[in-house]
Amino acid sequence: MKTACSVWSAFLLLLLLLPAGQLSAKDKPLVNVKTFTTQDGFTSTDVTDILQARNGLIWLSSWNGLSSYDGQQFKHYKPAGNQVKYVDGEGTQYRDIRINKIAEDAAGNIICFARDFKLYAFRPAEELFYDLAELHPEISLPSKEAEQRFFAVSDSISYIFADGDYLVRNSGDWLDPSQTESVTLSKRHRVFNVLADSKGNEWILTDMGVVVLGFDFPDNQFPFAYLCEGTGAVFLATRDGLIEKYSYESNQLEYLPVSRQLGHCTAMQMLQNGQVAVCTDEGLLIFSPEDGRSQVIYKQEHILSLYEDSRGGLWLFSAGYDGILYYDPSKGEIRRLPSPTDTNIKHFVRTHRPFVYETPQKDIWVVTPSAGLCYYDRDQQRLSPYYINNSAESILSVSCIRFLVDYQGNLWISGEKTMEK
Fold this sequence. Notes:
- By secondary structure, this protein is mainly beta.
- Strand 30 (323-328) and strand 31 form a beta hairpin.
- Helix content is 2%, strand content 45%.
- The protein is flat and about 65 Å long.
- The chain has helices spanning 2-7, 132-135; strands spanning 8-16, 31-37, 47-52, 58-62, 65-69, 74-77, 83-87, 92-96, 99-104, 110-114, 119-123, 128-131, 149-152, 158-161, 166-170, 180-184, 191-196, 202-206, 209-213, 224-230, 233-238, 243-247, 252-255, 265-270, 276-280, 283-287, 294-297, 303-308, 314-318, 323-328, 333-338, 355-358, 364-368, 372-377, 382-384, 402-405, 411-414.
- It contains two helices and 37 strands.
- The protein starts with a helix and ends in a 7-residue tail after the last strand.
- The strands form ten sheets. Strands 2-1-37-36 form a four-stranded antiparallel β-sheet. Strands 3-4-5-6 form a four-stranded antiparallel β-sheet, with no helix packed on it.
């Protein structure tokens, strides 16, 4: 067992290959599964994050440094002695690095959020790490209590929130100090999100109110945490259920009667049909911005997240329910889809992270808390585990903790240290 565990890595590439139109409703999806092992040059057993850069490279972070994959081989970036190179004006020094999260800036640098509560930028062309605090002292994190978040607002603009006083904005290259500026917050804030609207305005949502870069937003102190944009308007929601509408034409906030119909908000999304969906701890609220009509789906359910598929179907994860909820607005259909209970499903130490993915062929893949990866059988209207062939041993039972859908529609999954092929 010990030998087998050392061979299989914690990483899986799921390739969805069959062109649309070649499967009937009774057929299961056709996939090609690739498991990366040490034989492929993959050495990181604890993948903490995955991203695909604009140039197509796949980047993986771990407690063992940073890795890239070009479709043929892995390259690992772990400077000698597991240390980080940076320039401090007096010469080259070194620091240890364990990476928890990664992001890409507009210049192609990989921004690394390290275990030591510091921020680094890896420049691929030089294959070197740089300590961002040396270039931007305002984002230095003195303690583990400090919050660090990266917001990619557009292809060129990104923000780093390092503590309650500074939000640092960058217009391209985080290694170029001339492209950064500090947005000083008047009081110690918690930044919920930073988003760009269709007009290019940048919305900063905090627990002390909203700041907009681009125009004079009405004075407010409402802690809006969620935002979605409709035609000529932006909808904002607080975590305690207040919902308001901002009109570009009047430059005013308008209280909406649907506010506080239910409990605390957990997410908000504009749907394909122009309606707004609000996830709450007392159900799913759907309302029409045009006439104000509203309805509540799955009342008393604590809805955590929402995914809308290409057909307009809504897939909902609910706290305490081992499976997924489905609602078809066009037909008014409501279904509960429990996790499959096949005895061949392998159970892992860590709980799977819920996830929904629709392939270009319109197949729906779902990760539920207990069963992991399964697909939606439209003929049987249920979630089913995936068997690569007809044998029980061929079940695709993998640990699912982190995900990436790449530009080709492939699904990358990372999980626990051992994985079944």
